Amino acid sequence: MASHPGRLSPAAVRIDGLVRSFAGRRVLDGLELTVRDGEFVALLGRSGSGKSTLLRALARLDHDVDGEGGLTAPEDVSVVFQDARLLPWKRLLDNVVLGLRAPDAEERGRAALAEVGLAGRERAWPVELSGGEQQRVSLARSLVREPRLLLADEPFGALDALTRIRMHALLRTLCARHRPAVLLVTHDVDEAIALADRVVVLDRGRIAADLPVRLPAPRRAGGPGHARLRDRLLAHLGVDLDEPGIEADADADADADTGVGADDTGAGPGRESGRESGHGSGAASTPAHDRAAEEIPA
Amino acid sequence: MSVDAPVRRTVPSASRAGGGNAAKARPRRAAGRRLGPGRPVPYGWVLGPALLFALWAAGAAAGLIDPRALPAPWTVAATAGDLIAEGRLQDHLLTSARRAVLGLLSGVAGGLLFALVSGLSRVGEALVDGPVQIKRAIPSLALIPLLILWFGIGETMKVVTIALGVFVPVYIHTHNGLRAIDNRYVELAETVRLGRAAFVRQVVLPGALPGFLLGMRFAVTSAWLALAVVEQVNATSGIGYMMELARTYGQTDVILVGLVVYGLLGLVSDGLVRLVERRALSWRRTLAG
């Protein structure tokens, strides 16, 4: 997410009128979405909005589900699940290289473990690790395959707040290095803003909002623009923020459009809500301000 | 030991509350009384058997136990020595062990094979599981008359009887283990694109291993049970035959030697399975210590 992907980079994911139904109920209802190569998209939505269904469709895990519509996704997809999902009977290295068919698989596995800060633990069993460490192994398992598309289903939802902050930093570093297209499902608005190039809100099986995040690299809650974007996303999620002033409005108003500029980058045929403030396309104007508050390494 | 351990624990807290004497006067009324069974007694598992053995020896020495009903421990030991010196015990043991091992191996192989067929495919389950459940409802030993008609009274009948007894627990527990494999792991295998063979090797078999080993423990027990029965029905050799022969001559001491041998065989084989279990399942024992 260090750089916004160029408008012309090819689409890694192209979804066109996707429908998925369970027992007659349309969970995905004509969904349109495009994710470009190297783009980091966060998918927000309330429970039951179809986030996981979409992710499972992209991961080709929806075998017996009724549906129709166009879905183009690359062959090399990796999934990070909410639980680390390590095979308990395999040592860490064997978990990382599970199913990896390459002559230098072991070497790459070691390198991937080192990347997530677990060098030297190759022979450990999963039960010996903390939750955060297990999720790091799961990240290593996903990235060792150099996927074109990385799907993550609330990968940090089960972690404590401190570990989650560290994992955000790690995920940003890793994605900046490997540059897969990322679709991160989350219900945490701050997580979405902290990580993504673009935040998509899913509601009743359709895209309800599609907002690019134009905040400077070290994004910190409370920074200018951040609060604005946060409130708008929360509004789309049906959270009513009538209570005034929690998010330092004066600050946010001053930079009203610095963080948020809705345009059509990569979105499907722009949904009305996705372009609600079409005039603002200002790039990050106060990077110094944001950086002063840095505490998470990018 | 277990009795005064909690007493010692209560003293410091009680004296801090005021008055060491009071603590000594009614130590067990102090707060924080332990409700669990407490710390284990060292070598506690020997205690019961040792007491039983002592009663047996004392009763025999005092002449309270009729030696025709239950000979003294030293008589049994001397008889065992004689049988070993004559070579009879080893011969019988070897014959019995061969039957048990053959039956065990073929039963385990069959149970494992059927469990895999029925655990890995729905068609296999439809074909295999029903008949096995029916077989399970019939006690294996009730099949002996039929097996004698089919196979005669030779070794084949004995091995088949043992194998049938072993087959059921291995099948049931392995099949259970296979079915209990978390669907999340199946999804994972799909997302990392494991092939069918790799999936079976890396996910299914290790996942079903705990179930299989549990089945093995039951299987070993049923193997010895079936062995004891077939050797007393129609045999001319083996530990069971030795005991049956001893019965006709009223040699209680020989019968006891046979029982001790069966007991040792059971203990050793169960210990072996547990050893394998500890090795093979080390991945989940690391935290248990």
From TrEMBL, chain B:
Domain ABC transmembrane type-1 per the UniProt entry, residue ranges: 89-273
Transmembrane regions: 43-65, 100-124, 136-153, 159-178, 199-220, 254-276
Matches recorded under Pfam families: BPD_transp_1
Domain of life: Bacteria
Compartments where found: Cell membrane
Family annotation (PROSITE patterns): ABC_TM1 (PS50928)
Family: Belongs to the binding-protein-dependent transport system permease family.
Protein name as annotated: ABC transporter permease
Principal cellular location given in the protein's record: membrane
InterPro entries per UniProt: MetI-like, MetI-like_sf
Annotated region (Disordered), positions in chain: 1-35
Keywords assigned: Cell membrane, Membrane, Transmembrane, Transmembrane helix, Transport
Membrane-related topology note: Multi-pass membrane protein
UniProt keyword Ion transport present: no
Coiled-coil residues: none
